[in-house]
Amino acid sequence: MKLKQLSLDRTYYSSFHIRQDSYPKYHNTWHYHEEIEFICIYRGHGTLFIGDCIQSFSAGDVVLIGPNLPHYWLFEDLRGDEQLDPIDCIVIHFKKDFAGIDFFNIPEMSQLKELIQSAEKGLLVKDNLLSVLRQQLQAILNTEGVTRFTYLLQALAQYATFPHRRLVSDNYAILNHSNDQRRMNDVMNYIREHYKTKMELDKLADQAKMTKNSFCRYFKNKTGKTPIQFVSEIRVAHACRLLKYTDLSLKEICFDSGFNNFVSFHKIFKDQLNKTPTQYRKQ
Fold it and tell me: Locate the HTH araC/xylS-type domain: which residues (predicted)?
């Protein structure tokens, strides 16, 4: 059993694939694919797991994920608005040579070539850029032929001009993906369902059908973090969303995020973000 490699729908007449999602059907599995992923979040927020990075995301974020880089999108609905679909995002997948083997070697494409190389570590552009990219991405959805192709190049060129942040650390290396599909997804699903409660290492190891010591080594190799670090970062990411989108008290947020006391919540939050929950909310 292998870490899930997605085979993305592509037609004979298209050099890349684009879709608009209103439900996270294809996002909530630990997976990888040969194609580069270019995704723009219009509505929805949650946590992105990519390589050895755990990153909160929200509406306005645009992410570029390199080929064969394992990732997992955990969308959460904090609005409680049943009238809206859970998410709204446009997702584009394309291979590094989708425009031809030597296309990005011509001088005019040097900026895009550098962008695609940088995407191997995952790139994030945050905050209020939808107004700039929405028109181009919608045009890709609504046109065909050479116009669709050129709109994608324009969107990538536009993306390259924005300040972006690398998500994956420099020392992270894509490992052999064998024996991962069910094991990692079982572990990730268990964490997703139980991170707000007491997390026991024995139960995590049971999901992977491994001993505790073997599981800890395995998990650190796959994510770059210990299981405890990983769960703590998910809890902090959830707390950040509650601080940003709700009026809950700090004590309510502490316990809703899975921390069993306010002291540990405050310490772990500050250690990860270099600011207190109160400072985060004010900003």
Answer: 185-283
CA distance 36 to 96: 7
pLDDT digits (tens, 9 = 90+) for 121-136: 999 998 666 677 878 8
User: CA nearest 191: which of 92, 85, 49, 96?
Assistant: 49
Identity at 135, one-letter amino acid code = Q
Instruction: Please answer whether residues 47 and 102 qualify as being in contact, where contact means their C-beta atoms are separated by less than 8 angstroms.
Output: no
pTM: 0.76
**N-terminal to C-terminal alpha carbon distance within the chain:** 45
* Residue 57: strand pairing partners: 46
Cβ atoms of 28 and 75 within 8 Å: the answer is: yes
Helix (H, G, I), strand (E, B) or coil at 63: strand
pLDDT in tens, 11-44: 445 789 999 988 776 677 778 888 999 999 988 8
> Encoding tokens for residue 6?
């997605």
Q: Provide the b/e sequence for 162-174 (b: ≥16 CB within 10 Å).
A: eebeebbeeebee
